[in-house]
Structures are given as C-alpha cells and as structure tokens.
C-alpha cells in the first residue's frame, strides 16, 4: 500500500493535510479505503499547484531581470543617440 504521507518532513504540505492523513489512518479500514483515494487526489493537486506557483514565481523573477536589462539598454541607446545628434549638430 502506498503511503499517504509526503516524503521527508512534510513541509511541502499544509499541516492540516498531514493531520487529516493521520486521522484517516485511525478510521476503520472500510472508511480508510474510501478516504485514502480522495486524500491522495487532494495531495497531488496541492503538489501540482505548488509546482505551478514555483514556476510562475521563477518566470516573474526572470521577467523582472529581463526588464532591468532592457531598461539599461534603452537608457544607453538614448544616450548614444543624443551624443550622435550633438556630433551632427556640431558639424
């Protein structure tokens, strides 16, 4: 039988989910079987959401960094443009 408890210390799941798994384990076997499947679905769903959130946060961090680089490039390009204009006006 597959364990309902997460691998490791359980920090990836809310405390309430772990407590629910412990309480399910204390139920009579016929109730356990029915609730284990539902609990497993909820656990997998929570893990998927956590992974998606991590991916979104990583993408946002990368986007912020990309924007900083673009703003820097834009600023340098504007300065270069202004310098070239001044050189052209001096001629």
Outline of this structure?
The protein is mainly alpha-helical and 91 residues long. It contains 2 helices and no strands.
Keywords, separated by commas or semicolons:
0% strand, 80% helix, mainly alpha
Outline the fold blueprint.
Layout: H1 15-25, H2 29-90
Verbal overview:
The chain starts with 14 loop residues before the first helix and ends with a helix. It has helices spanning 15-25, 29-90. The chain is mostly helical. The protein is built from 2 helices and no strands. The protein has one domain (15-90). It is 80% helix and 0% strand. The longest helix has 62 residues, at 29-90. The model is unreliable at 6-10 (pLDDT under 50).
H/E series: HH
Question: How many whole angstroms does the radius of gyration measure?
Answer: 28 Å
Q: How much helicity do the residues have?
A: over 70%
Mean pLDDT: 89
Report the principal-axis shape.
Answer: rod-shaped
Spatial separation of the terminal alpha carbons:
85 Å
Beta fraction of the residues? Answer: under 5%
For the sheet with most strands, the description reads: none
Identify low-pLDDT runs: 6-10
- The secondary structure category is mainly alpha
Number of helices: 2
The strand count comes to: 0
Number of domains: 1
């Amino acid at each position: 039988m597959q364990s309902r408890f997460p691998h490791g210390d359980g920090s990836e799941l809310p405390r309430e989910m772990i407590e629910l798994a412990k309480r399910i384990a204390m139920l009579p076997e016929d109730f356990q079987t029915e609730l284990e499947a539902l609990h497993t679905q909820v656990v997998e769903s929570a893990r998927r959401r956590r992974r998606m959130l991590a991916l979104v946060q990583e993408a946002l961090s990368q986007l912020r960094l990309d924007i900083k680089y673009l703003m820097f490039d834009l600023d340098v390009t504007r300065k270069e443009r202004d310098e070239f204009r001044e050189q052209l006006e001096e001629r």
